[in-house]
Amino acid sequence: MKIDTRSTCFLYGCWDLFFSMLYLFIFTVLMPSYHPTSRFLTLFFPAVLGAGGLYLAVQGPRARQVGLGLAILFLTLCLLMLAALSYTIGMFNGIYGPLGTGISVISAILMAMTVFLVGIWPVFQLRAFWPVKRES
Amino acid sequence: MSTFARFLPRLLATAAAICLVAYGIGYRTHRHSPVPLPDEPSRRELVRILNLATAGERPSVEAARFPGRYPGDLVLHGYAKGRQAWRCEVPAAPLGKALARCIAQLAADPPPPGLAWRVDLVRSVLPIRRFFGLEALFLLPGLEALQVSLENGQKIVYLPEDMFLAGLLDRHMPLKFVPELRIGVDFAQVDRHVRETTGYEPVGHYRLQLWSILLDQAHPDGYRDVVRVHLTPPEITRERVLEAANAGGRYMVNALIRDPLERFPCTQRACRHGYFTAEPGQFLYNYNIVTGLYDFQNRNLYNLVRHAGTTYSLANLYLITRDPSYADAASRAIAYLVGLAGNSCSQEPFRCVANDLEPCLGSASLTLLAVAEYRLATGDAQYDEFARGLAKFLLYMQRPDGSFRHIYNLKTRQPDEKQVLLFYSGEAAFALAKAFRAYGERSWLDAAVLALDHLTGPATSPLPFHFGFGEEHWTCQAAREVAPEVMKPRFLEFCLDFSHFIERQQFTKTDTAFPDFSGSYGFSPFLPPHTNGAGSRTEANVSILELARLHGVSAPHVERQIRRAVEHIITHQKRPGNCWLCADMARADGAVVNTLTTWDVRIDTVQHVTSGLIRASRALYP
Questions:
Q1: Is B144 exposed, middle or buried (0-12, 13-18, 19+ CB in 10 A)?
Q2: Mean pLDDT by 10 residues, chain B (622 residues)
Q3: Engineered SS bond to B212: which of B226, B459, B562, B576, CB 3.0-4.6 Å?
Q4: Alpha carbon of B369 to those of B390, B451, B510: distances in Å?
Q5: Three-state secondary structure string covering B200-233
Q6: Using CA atoms, how far apart are residues B167 and B290, in angstroms rounded to an integer?
Q7: Longest dimension (CA), chain B
Q8: Which among A86, A96, A97 has CB closest to B19?
Q9: pTM to 2 decimals?
Q10: Does residue A3 form part of some domain?
Q11: Do B22 and A90 touch (CB under 8 A)?
Q12: C-alpha–C-alpha distance, residues B527 and A87, integer Å
C-alpha cells in the first residue's frame, strides 16, 4: 500500500495521532482518573481519536468523512467542557458572590487551556475536510 | 466567501452563547432570592418584643404587624457557657404567628437567667445537590444554616452555632493523602450525625440564608448583627487596640503553666482519664474554645520556637505597657528555656535550646530575641550569659556569605549543610539585631546586616522570587531593628515591595461575599483565612512603616494594610459579650482563633496578633 505523505489526510492523521498521544499521556501519566466513568471517558475519546488518526494516515476509504467526523466530535466535546466550566463558575458565583482575583484567573486559565488543547486543532481539521461543491 | 468562512463565526457565536447560558443557569439556580426583611420600624418592634420576653416580661404580640411569610423558621436560641440552653423553632409563615408562639413558649418554659439570645430568620432555602464532590463547598461556612430532610418527612436545621458545636465545619477532606487539608462540609459526617441523633435516614440537604442577630438591650437598636457567630466591632480607636492587645497578653499569661499538678482537660489518647499535666514554664499550646479542651503536650511534643516567640511577645508587651504580670510571665518562660538549654549543647562552645538531638536555629534565635527584649524592657541581667551563648550559636551557624545553617546535629557535632527551613534565617537576623540593641555588641549588628544583605540579595535569585516573596515578615522586622545604625536603601526597597506583594493577598470588604475576611490574608473565599497571618504580617508591616518613616518615605499602602488587619484581629478576638459559644470565657478571654471556621487557638496565633496590635497601637494609633 502506498501512502501519500503530502496528502491532507496523512497530515491531519498525524496531528490526530499526536493529540491522541498527548491526551493519553495527560490522562494516564499526569492526571489519571480513579473513577470508573471518568477513566472510561478520558481513555475512550483519545483512543477514538488515535484510531481515527491512524485511519486518516493510511488513507482508508472515506477518510475525509472520518476526519470531518473526528473534528466535529472534538469540537462538540470542547463546547461541552466549556459549558460545564461556565456552569461551575456561574454556580460558585451564585453561591459566593465575587470569587476574588485568584479564582477568576484560575477559571480563565482553565477555559483557555480547554480551548488550546481541545478546541483549536479540530477547527483546522474541519476546514481541511469541509465539503467543497465541485463545479462540473 | 466559502461556506466554511461563513460557518466559523457562527460556531464561535454558538460557543459563546452556550457558555453564557450555562453560566446563567449555574448562577441563577444557586443564588438566593431572599424574602425581604420586615421594614425598619417592624424590625425594631420585633426586637423590642423579644428583648422584653427574654428578660422575663410578658409583652403583647400583635401578630398582624408581621405579615411577612418566610420559607423557613424563626429560631430564638439562648446560650450559657457555650452551650445552647433554650430554643424555639417555629415556621415563620407568617412571621407574626411564629413570634407569638415563641413568646408563648418563653412564658410556658422560662429560660434560666443570663442567657445570650440569638435570633435567626430563614429568608431563602435552596437545595444542595451532589456535583462531583464540589457540593462540600456549597454551604457558606458559619453564615448559612444546613437543613436536612429525613425519610419520615421531618426536617432538621443546623444553625451556624449547631455546626460549630457539633464540629461539622471544615471537615471535608478533598485529598485523602493530605489529611491536614480540610475544607467545606463533609456530608457523610453530617448524615452520620443525623442518623445518630434522630435514628432516621437523611434524604436531602438544603442551605438556608439567614438574618442573624444577637439581642442586646444596651445597644440603641436593641440588637447587633451577627456574621459567622461573631459581632462587628464598633470604631477602632487607640483605646480599643490597646485593650485588645492587653486581652491577648492576659490570655498568654493565663496560658503559662505554673503548677505541675494542675490538670488540663483533653480527649486525645495520650491523656490520662481525660486530663494531662505539664511542666511549669510551658504555655498551654492549643485550646479549643468551643469544646474547652486542650491538645495534649509534653516536653518531646512541645514546640520550642513558638514558646520562645510567645515569650518575646510578653517581653515586648511589658516594654510598652509596663504591666508587671507580663515581665513575670516572660521571666518564667525564659527560665524554662534556660532549664532546657542546660541539657542541650553542654559539650559545645555555645548555648542552644532543644528537646531532641537536633537543636535548630529557629528556637535559638527566638529565644535570644525574647531574652534580649526582656533585657531591654526590664534591665534584668540574670539571663545575659545565656543570651551571649545563644548569640555565639547563631554566629557559628552563619556562613561567610551571610546565610545560615538551620540545624545542628549533637551526635556528629556538625551543622547540617542541606536542610533549609522556613523563617529561620529571618528570625536569626532579627534576633542578632535585637541582641545588639540590648547588649551593644557591634559584631552582632554586623552579622545581622550580613544576613540581611543575603536575604535581600542572593536569596532572592531563584526564579520564583523574581515574581514573588517567601515568608519575609521576620526579615523586615530585622531590617527595621538594624536602623538607624544601618539604613540601606535596598532593605527599604525590599520590604516595601514585600508589603505591596502581600497587600495583593489581603482581603478587603468587597473582595468576597465575606466582609469578615477583610484584613486577613488568603487566596480565595473557599479557604477561610488563618488569623495568624494577619498578626505576623502586621508585625512586619509596622516595622516596614517605621523603617519607611526613618527614611522619610511615605507608605500609605502599608498603613492601609495595618488598619485592615487590626480591625480583622479585633473582630475575631474573643471577649466577654461576643463569644456565646465559648465553653469557659475566663480561659478564652483574649483568644484569637486560628481560622474562622474551626475555633482552635494556638498560642503563636495569639502571640503574633498581640504583638501586631501592641506595635500598631504605637505606630498608627498614637
A1: buried
A2: 83 94 96 95 95 92 92 97 96 95 95 96 96 91 95 96 93 80 90 95 97 95 94 90 97 97 90 92 96 93 94 97 97 94 82 87 96 97 96 96 94 89 94 97 97 94 83 95 96 96 91 89 87 96 98 96 97 94 96 92 97 95 80
A3: B226
A4: 10, 16, 38
A5: CCEEEEEEEEEEEEEECCCCCCCEEEEECCEECC
A6: 9
A7: 92
A8: A86
A9: 0.88
A10: no
A11: yes
A12: 21
For residue B321, being part of any structural domain is answered with: no
Q: Which among A92, A93, A134 is the top mutation candidate for probing chain B, defined by the most B β-carbons within 10 Å of its own β-carbon? A: A92
Residue A135 pLDDT greater than 70, yes or no: no
| B 108-147 residues inside an 8 A Cβ radius of A | 131, 134, 137-138, 140
A–B CB contacts, 8 A cutoff, strictly below: 98
Of all residues in chain B, the one with the smallest CA distance to A92 is B27
Q: Are B503 and B537 in contact (CB under 8 A)?
A: no
SS3 B156: strand
CB distance B30–A91 less than 8 Å?
yes
B209 within some domain: yes
Range of the domain at A107: 8-129
Q: Distance between the two ends of chain B, CA-based, in angstroms?
A: 74
Residue B196 falls inside a structural domain: yes
Element housing A126 (H / E): helix A121-129
Amino acid, single-letter form, for residue A79: L
Establish if A95 belongs to a structural domain.
yes
Subunit contact A127:B4, Cβ cutoff 8 A: yes
Report how many domains make up chain B: 1
Burial class (CB in 10 A: 0-12, 13-18, 19+), B300: exposed
Report the complex ipTM.
0.87
Q: Which residues contact A38 (CB under 8 A, 6 or more apart)?
A: none
Taking alpha carbons only, the member of A107, A118, A103 closest to residue A42 is A118
Chain B touched by A92 (CB under 8 Å): yes
Question: Any idea what DSSP says for residue B517?
Answer: G
The three-class DSSP label of residue B468 is: coil
Q: Do B357 and B371 form a contact (C-beta atoms < 8 A)? A: no
- Helix A36-57, helix A8-25: angle, nearest 10: 160
Dihedrals phi, psi of B477, to nearest 5 degrees: -70, -35
Q: A36 at the B interface (CB within 8 A)? A: no
* Distance of residue B225 Cα from the nearest chain A Cα, in angstroms: 20
Residue B331: other Cβ atoms inside 10 A: 19
A58/chain B closest Cα distance in angstroms? 26
Residue type for position B17: A
pLDDT tens track for B104-138: 999 999 999 999 999 999 999 999 999 988 899 99
Residue A134 lies in a domain: no
Nearest Cα residue to B107 out of B84, B86, B136, B133:
B86
CA–CA separation, B581 and B81 (whole Å): 7
CB distance from B517 to chain A under 8 Å?
no
Do the Cβ atoms of B99 and B61 come closer than 8 Å?
yes
Q: Which three cell numbers stand for residue B67?
A: 405579615
The residue segments making up the domain with residue B215 are 40-231
**A136 falls within a domain:** no
Sign of CA dihedral B519, B520, B523, B528: negative
Strands (E), B444-559: none
Report A:95-134 residues touching B (Cβ under 8 A). 95-103, 123, 126-127, 130, 132
How many domains are there within chain A? 1
